[in-house]
Amino acid sequence: MDRDKQLVLISFFIEKKAREDEQGRLTGKHEVVRTEPIPYYLSVSASKGNVENSPFGIDLDYDKTVIIEDTSCPVDESSVFWVDNVSIPESGDEIDEGFNVYYTGGKSHDYTVKRVAKSPNCIAVAIKHVEVAK
Hints:
Elements: E1 5-11, E2 13-20, E3 26-34, E4 38-44, E5 64-68, E6 80-82, H1 99-104, E7 111-118, E8 123-129
Antiparallel strand pairs: 1-4, 1-6, 2-3, 4-5, 5-8, 6-7, 7-8
């Protein structure tokens, strides 16, 4: 049902890039490059729930389940979500250039993907809450 959906932002993995120091030498560290957050209206569970309704079983450590009806969505275990850190803009507010800052207040993602289960009709995603330092 459309009324049970909420605004969620998803950022997809692009590549892992090697970091360089000021002299252009490789540091041995890598940085993950992702897409700008993309808005979706999705069904998000209130919490993990009980075992009978758990599509991922009891062994997987996750907090919520997200259902994506668009089966062509490229979500995978490297994607990140903004679920609780998203606010819907007030009508009449001016949208600035920074989409991410506008909808999230500059906050980083608050959920990572633990498991993806694809079916012909939808994609179920198990997500885990994380604290990300800016």
